[in-house]
Amino acid sequence: MLHTFPRTHNNARQFSNTVLMLKFQLPTPTTCPHCHARLFYHESSEQIFPRVRPPHELLQIFSSQTFESRNFREHIRSYNHVFSFSSLVVHMD
């Protein structure tokens, strides 16, 4: 048996406002006053993390003009890809 549908079967095109819909709107997002990040609904900006000073070696490799530093900066994306698939495991005795 072949079913035939009326021409108005596409509900997306024939949408009418007579259907009761529940409208829900979240409050406007807030911004962190310290780092200007957008905060989620119910997320507070009261948690402040202390600034961590980078190690001397890290500062050296980014600011120095040695061959190793320039090579590192030139290939930093490759290093990032390599380390993104690795993990560190620490066993504390």
Q: What descriptive keywords fit this protein?
A:
93 residues; mainly alpha; two-stranded antiparallel ribbon; 4% strand; elongated
Structure description:
The chain is mainly α and 93 residues long. It has a domain of 31 residues. Helix content is 27%, strand content 4%. The protein has a two-stranded antiparallel sheet. The model has no long low-confidence stretch (mean pLDDT 76).
Write the topology of this structure.
Elements: E1 30-31, E2 38-39, H1 56-63, H2 67-74, H3 76-84
Antiparallel strand pairs: 1-2
- Sheet-strand content, in percent, reads under 5%
Structural class: mainly alpha
The helix count comes to 3
Compressed to H and E, one letter per element, the order equals EEHHH
Strands of the biggest beta sheet: in what spatial order? 1-2
Q: Which oligomeric state applies?
A: single chain
How far apart the termini lie comes to 75 Å
Rg over C-alpha atoms, rounded to the nearest angstrom: 28 Å
The biggest beta sheet is recorded as: 2 strands, antiparallel
Global morphology: elongated
User: How confident is the prediction overall: mean pLDDT?
Assistant: 76
Low-confidence region ranges: none
- Helical residues, percent: 25-40%
* Count of beta strands: 2
